[in-house]
Amino acid sequence: PIDTVDIGSDRRSLYDVLMRNIKNGKLEDVYVDSYFTEKRKYSDLTATLQKVDTTDLGYEQLNAGEELSPEYVNRRDLDAADIVEYRIKGIWYFDKRMGELKYRLLGIAPVAPDVNFIDDESMAPEDALVELFWVWYPSARQILHDAKVFNARNSAMPITFDMLLNARRFNAVIYKEDNVHGDREIRDYIADNALFQLLESKRIKETIRDREQDMWAY
C-alpha cells in the first residue's frame, strides 16, 4: 500500500515505516552503500529524496530583483509509489551445531528512479534506478517487528515485517555476490542478455545450496 491517510497502522508500506523512523531518529544506522562504512542522517538524504526546480518565470523574477514566488518552484518528493524494488544483503553460513546452512540478513535498501531524472522520458527506467540508502538490518529489527504487514492468507492475524523478511516470504533474484572483481554485478559481466543473467543467478543459488549437501557427501 502507498496510502498513509485512509489506511490502518497494520497496512503501511515498508518504505513508509523506514522513512518515519529515520525522521524521528529511532533508526540511526543508515548508510550510503552496502558496505556500511559511511553513515547518513535524514538531513543528508534530502538531495536523494527531493528535487527542487525553479521554472523560467521564477528565474525572470530573480533576475528582475524580485522575491521568488512559491508557484514558480517545482518540488518532487519520492514516496512509496516510486519504489520499484528492494535490494537486500545477507550472508549464508553453516551452523555446525545444528548441522545446517543458515542465512542472516544484514541490510536492506529501497530502490527508486533518480529523483532528478524520474520524469525524464528519454532515459530508460532501469538505467535511472538508484539505491536511496542502506539500512543496517540488525539495528532495525525491533522497529520492523513492531510494524505489522497485512496477511493476505489470514486478515485476522497480521505478521510483522521482520517475520516476513526473515522467513523470506518474497520473490527475489540474486544480482551479485562477493567476489575478487570488486563485487561486480551479474549484468556487468553478462551484458544485454536477460536470460543468461537469470541463469547465472540460478547458478550462484545452486552453488550455495550444494554447499550444505556437500557437507554430508562422503
Describe the 3D structure.
The structure is a single chain. By secondary structure, the protein is of the alpha+beta class. The chain has 7 helices and 9 strands; from the N terminus they run αβαβαβββββαββααα. It has helices spanning 14-23, 46-49, 56-63, 137-146, 161-166, 186-189, 194-215, and strands at residues 30-31, 50-54, 73-77, 85-95, 100-113, 129-131, 134-136, 148-149, 159-160. Strand 4 (85-95) and strand 5 (100-113) form a beta hairpin. The termini are far apart. 13% of the residues are buried. The mean pLDDT is 87.
Mean pLDDT, to the nearest integer, reads: 87
| C-alpha geometry | globular
Largest β sheet strand count, sense and barrel closure? 5 strands, antiparallel
Note poorly predicted spans. none
State the helicity in percent bands: 25-40%
Rg value: 21 Å
Quote the beta fraction: 15-25%
Distance separating the two termini: 50 Å
Order of helices and strands: HEHEHEEEEEHEEHHH
What is the number of helices? 7
Annotate the secondary structure layout.
Elements: H1 14-23, E1 30-31, H2 46-49, E2 50-54, H3 56-63, E3 73-77, E4 85-95, E5 100-113, E6 129-131, E7 134-136, H4 137-146, E8 148-149, E9 159-160, H5 161-166, H6 186-189, H7 194-215
Antiparallel strand pairs: 1-7, 2-3, 4-5, 5-6, 5-7, 8-9
